Amino acid sequence: MIRRFFIAWGQGLCAALVLGGLGAGPAQADPARISDLLQTGPIFEILQQEGVDYGADLSEEMLGQPADPAWRAEVAEIHAPDRLRPPYEAAFAAALEGADQRAIEDWLTSDLGHRVVTLEVSARRALLDPDVEEAALIAAERADAAGDARLKAVRAVIEAADLIEPNVIGGLNANLAFYRAMAAGQAFPYEVTETDMLAEVAAQEPDIRADVTGWLEGYLFMAYAPLSLDELHDCAEFSDSPAGRALMQAQFAAFDVIYETSSAALGAALARRMAGMEL
């Protein structure tokens, strides 16, 4: 089963481009300040709602019934910001060590940097509506068919930032954590070995890759609609820079931690729910 949300998604994607003339910047690096400038708080609120929506899908598909209030509450707690954000922040800060944090803050406090982050968060929130998500995917598909220059620019950003591969790996790892927790909770009516789970997850790779690629293109094509082609070019240029790569790697490292944690917790909760139904 493929989770309908992925690690990093481009959040903060071009939010550290080093431009001249932005001032002296902060005197001391502060990963927590960078996280706040990336609007991590609102992102975790969105993640919680996405988790609840995914939990409802799991209830339909694996329990054969709509999600009841108790299940929704349990899934909401698994994805609670106050539960997931502390390990995220710790991993993010550790991964940022050695990065040019001053340059990152300079850009995040600039007008364009702030606009980019705000657009990403706004689009992410809008995609909570399945109709909006579908429209975004369709818009990107139509732009592809038309050879749209803006979609080509968005794809250049995605390629420069190397967003696809880490998202695919993160999705595979999250699904493996989910299956391991399900197996540990004896949710399967037959023995499932580690080899079985690895093979099952590996078989999902093409679907996850296609899903990640289509979703990222739809999301970023929608999010970056107000940006000019020159600004999109700036995003791609930054994404391929040392500072840009460091920022994205830090976000991926941190989201890997919380996605594997939440996926394992969700698998364990689902196993308990299935066991309770059998009693």
SSE map:
Blueprint: H1 31-37, H2 40-63, H3 69-78, H4 81-96, H5 101-108, H6 111-126, H7 130-145, H8 149-161, H9 164-184, H10 194-203, H11 205-223, H12 229-239, H13 242-278
Helix pairs in contact: 1-5, 2-3, 2-13, 3-13, 4-13, 6-11, 7-11, 8-11, 8-12, 9-10, 9-11, 9-13
Structural summary, described in words:
There is one protein chain. Helix content is 75%, strand content 0%. The protein is mainly alpha-helical and 279 residues long. Helix 2 (40-63) runs parallel beside helix 13, helix 7 (130-145) crosses helix 11 (205-223) and helix 9 (164-184) runs parallel beside helix 13 (242-278). The protein is globular. Residues 1-27 have low confidence and may be disordered.
